[in-house]
Amino acid sequence: MNATAQHARFVSGPLGGHVLEMVLTGWASMLAVFAVEFLSLLYLGTLEDEAVLGAVGFGSMTQFTIIAVCIGVTVGGAALVSRALGAQDAAQARTLAGASLILMAATALAAGAVFLAAIGPFTAANGLAEDVRAHLLSYVLITTPFAVVMGIGMMLSNLLRAAGHGRQSMWVLLAGTGTVAVLDPIVIFVLDGGMVGIAWASGAGRLATVALGAWLVFRKHRLVAWPAVGQLREHLAAIGAIALPAALTTLATPAAVIFTVSTYASFGPSVLAGATVVDRLLQLAYSLFFVLPGAIGPILGQNLGAGQWDRVRQTAGLAARWALLYGFSAAVGLAILAPWMPDIFRVTGPGRDLIVFFCRYGSFAWALNALFFVSIAVFNNLGYATYSTVIGWLRATIGTVPFVWLGARLGGPEGVMLGQMGGFALFSLIAMALCRRVLRAPPAGFAPGAPA
């Protein structure tokens, strides 16, 4: 690991600047990812086939189970690497990085295999329309292996972020999105590749992400050392202690989404197409939320490792305030654009009504999810990962199933959305209340360090 990588950047200097840098660089890359997915769906909309839109949406939302497991591993690996850097132990940070990549490869392969084995029986049991199901199965057969590749890319990106290279972490993900942005219009408008072409273009983008990430991590910064067998077992256990509850926490979200989108599917292809558009709008408009745990995690971890509790608390407070401001600003923007959103995707009927309802009303409830993502970052990086798991699954079960079930029966597709958004908002407030309690005092074993 070179000299610049050994320095724990976040234990000194203005916290506001560190939070802004990490959040904005993470947001830029995530925004680009979601913008390209948004454009991919827009291109597919030109086919004027709501079954294709619904299939891609259902496939992507269920496939997020693989990404959720990978996110758990990145959380565990990045948290321990950043703590080691904060404690000025560069050698430990390098071997932890190596163990993280080994664990990611094994976990992503297992998750992908389970997904491919389960998706066929699941869609059959769910009663998905035959044309939608046929499109979906052909789509996931291509994209699932590349979702496994993406797990490696995510780990490489997060190792750069843990070492303080936020901008370079951003470029790793931008390499993939740039590739897809170039290929998508070619496969749709030149090669007439349709949904299958979009799937292969997505895979090429994920390969580009891994290629650049590997060069930066292994060649430029030399952030990785492969641990010996005995050390590997020790590191895997330490990473797994954070990664397992973090993965279980992250899996809660796709579990809730799968239940909700299955409920939407019962209302027909138009509503499923509308729900797919809503999913893309939500990702694009609130992309900043999804980077919060990975963005502020290294700041929390380095300052915890350096024994600077006041800076840990200040980081969480700044992130929560700024994220809420952003969230409600995004909701206002969606409400203004509501009448035009369904038209650009050529969605009509009840699917159109669902999109408009989200933009005008559901978006404001979703803005409160800022508090949930900040809380998860605090729990995972301060040694309370079990709290993340519990609150995440309560949100996905008690905060989803009864609300969505009741909403479907009382208000149709819009009732489903209102139920899901309301339940998520409620548990975001509960998560923040627990987070504030955690931040009252340092965790056990905390060793105060010198002031920055």
3D architecture notes:
- The chain is mostly helical and 452 residues long.
- The protein has helices at residues 3-6, 15-45, 50-86, 90-125, 130-162, 166-190, 194-220, 229-265, 269-285, 287-305, 309-337, 341-345, 349-366, 369-381, 385-396, 401-438.
- The model is unreliable at 1-6 (pLDDT under 50).
Radius of gyration from the CA trace? 21 Å
Question: How would you name the oligomeric state of the polypeptide chains in this document?
Answer: single chain
Give start-end ranges of low-pLDDT stretches. 1-6
Structural class label: mainly alpha
Please provide a brief summary of the model.
The chain is an all-alpha fold. It has helices at 3-6, 15-45, 50-86, 90-125, 130-162, 166-190, 194-220, 229-265, 269-285, 287-305, 309-337, 341-345, 349-366, 369-381, 385-396, 401-438.
Task: Supply the key terms.
disordered N terminus; 452 residues; 16 helices; globular; 84% helix
Topology:
Elements: H1 3-6, H2 15-45, H3 50-86, H4 90-125, H5 130-162, H6 166-190, H7 194-220, H8 229-265, H9 269-285, H10 287-305, H11 309-337, H12 341-345, H13 349-366, H14 369-381, H15 385-396, H16 401-438
Helix pairs in contact: 2-6, 2-9, 2-10, 3-4, 3-5, 3-8, 3-9, 3-10, 4-5, 4-8, 5-6, 5-7, 6-7, 8-15, 8-16, 9-13, 10-11, 10-14, 11-13, 11-14, 13-16, 14-15, 14-16, 15-16
